[in-house]
Amino acid sequence: MMHIQQRKNAILAVLQSLIVSFVVCGYLFLNTVSAKTTFDEQWLTTQLATAEKKSIQDPTQAITYLTQLLSKHENNVTALQRSKLQIYLAENYLLNGEMTPAIELEKQVSVHLDLLDNFTHIDYLLVQANIYNSIGDPKNALTALLEAKNKAELFGDDDLKGNVYSSLASYYVYNHDEIRAIDYFYKAYELISRGGNQLKLAYIESTMAKSYEFLFDFEKAIELQNKALAYFLKNDLSFDIMVSYFHLAKIYLKLSRSQDAIDNANKMLKINYEVANPSFDYYAYIIIAEANLQLDNLDKAIDYLNLSNVYFHELEDVHNIIKHLYIQAEIELKKNNLTNASSTLEKARQLLANIPVENSVTLELKLVALQAQLAIQQGNYQQAVSYQQAHIELSAQYYNQVRELSRSRHKVQFDIKKVELEKQLLEKNKELNEFALQEIKQQQTLQKTAMLSVLLLFLVLLIFTWRQYRLRRKFSLLANTDFLTGVANRRKIMDLAELQWLQLKLDNQKFTLICFDLDHFKKINDNYGHPAGDLVLKAVTQISQRAIRESDFLGRIGGEEFLVVLNNTTSVEATEIAFRIKSDIEKEHIISDGQIIKITASFGVAQKSSELTSFKDLLKKADKALYTAKEHGRNRVEINE
């Protein structure tokens, strides 16, 4: 019996041992399987790098990739990993103009903010700021950006700070504070230049062009945008190429270069035929609609507005929605559909009411101008005067001469800093000659002393030169500008024309002058008063500047007399420009004290010919043609062949 009991005990011991071994093996197996179904940080870094490559080509590709990735590995990633992927996915939705999914992702990430590391939290704040800005909440957008800035400045990561400064610059561009925008663009440019990331530098230059556009330095804006575009074209970045074409088209619209705007929009459509991004189709169509409005091609403007309306319901950026409504209202006004125009402008006004006026100056100005036009067409001239007065006050508040001079100063300072930075980068890339250690030690004290002396002398000279430059610039502006209209005065335009004449070769006859004079201007002063006369002169100046080309020069040479200098231009081309100015002046409605003032002008055109020996002879010919126009009934263009 004892023997049998011992055998039973032995068997039980063996079974217990087997059970324990089985449990341990099972536990280890399950842990191994579990380890294989979760991912480490290297996996996440690889996925984000892949998504970034796709985003550079087209954010839509990155959206598809990240959406599938999150769906496939929903149960295998940690909350932190999921948040990082969701933040980058939201960034790409915002690039694509898709606000709703970006907002939903931001809400999901906000639940796990306590898990985010500082770098990821900064990325989250940039996404949050972008969303706030797009829905017309600049105050909360700036709060998020400043929090991101404070966090980024705690670290020594140039790339991180560069991204935050670039986002701040974009915010200030978007909200009409170009001075701060340029300052932050410079900071971002300096930081990113250290890392040599040419793509990010191109992005900064593309966005920086918007600052110069709002500063009315369209030449600089086009230069920067074309520089960025050249990089995008070289690297075949379709999405970014279309963005640059879009920004160039918007600049050309402001310059009334309507056909150039249409050409750039058509380039967008051609590229987007392959990319198939609906947002770019919309922006191309709405640009072409606006350009045709400028060209008075109403039927084409309506056709392209209808094409853009297919995508209008997908717009979520309140600023773009308002701009679309403005174009729609302009078309309705031209069709004299006043009921619809009034309804459209009311929709725009309600949207605009939610945005602080300091963050929507240009939109406010456009609304008031359209409301004034509507009131005129309705015959409500008292209301029209009220709107025009509001337009004048708003313009004076935000675009006075002091602010323009301040902006120009900051532009000059930025350009100087940028040149200095580029020189430093070039010097950094040069190889330094090797010197013997002993020779360096012997000359070190002498070199430091000499360098300090040179630097002090250079600093003194720099301060003196800068002060002299500012004084010369100020006096030059006062001496060469007509105080009332802001264009060149008689001395400046005559000197400029004389210089261009002297630079012409003897056989080059393509140099033309347009002299024009306002008809019955004395009666305007007598009947309406001198303030009304001043208002007329300012309006005629603005009309003429819009009608001439970038290469032409306009000046006021008398009380109501103007001169346009057209180099490399025949009399046929100049006559077309003269007729364009004449036609635009005829169409203008100027309201003073509730009264509508109609104005016309007479024009004289003269081209350089071989028998003329001086610029003064050509000016006499143009004056003679102007006199002929006056004799033949006024409001006409005469050519002195």
Automatic annotation (TrEMBL):
Region forming the signal peptide: none
Cross-referenced CDD domains: GGDEF
Listed cofactors: Mg(2+)
Molecular function terms from GO: diguanylate cyclase activity
InterPro entries: Diguanylate_Cyclase, GGDEF_dom, Nucleotide_cyclase, Rev_trsase/Diguanyl_cyclase, TPR-like_helical_dom_sf, TPR_rpt
Entry keywords, A to Z: Membrane, Transmembrane, Transmembrane helix
Superkingdom in the source lineage: Bacteria
Record-listed E.C. numbers: 2.7.7.65
TM ranges: 12-30, 449-466
Domain GGDEF: 509-641
Recorded catalytic activity of this chain's protein: 2 GTP = 3',3'-c-di-GMP + 2 diphosphate
Classification via PANTHER family: DIGUANYLATE CYCLASE DGCM-RELATED, REGULATORY COMPONENTS OF SENSORY TRANSDUCTION SYSTEM
Protein name (database record): diguanylate cyclase
UniProt organism field: Pseudoalteromonas porphyrae
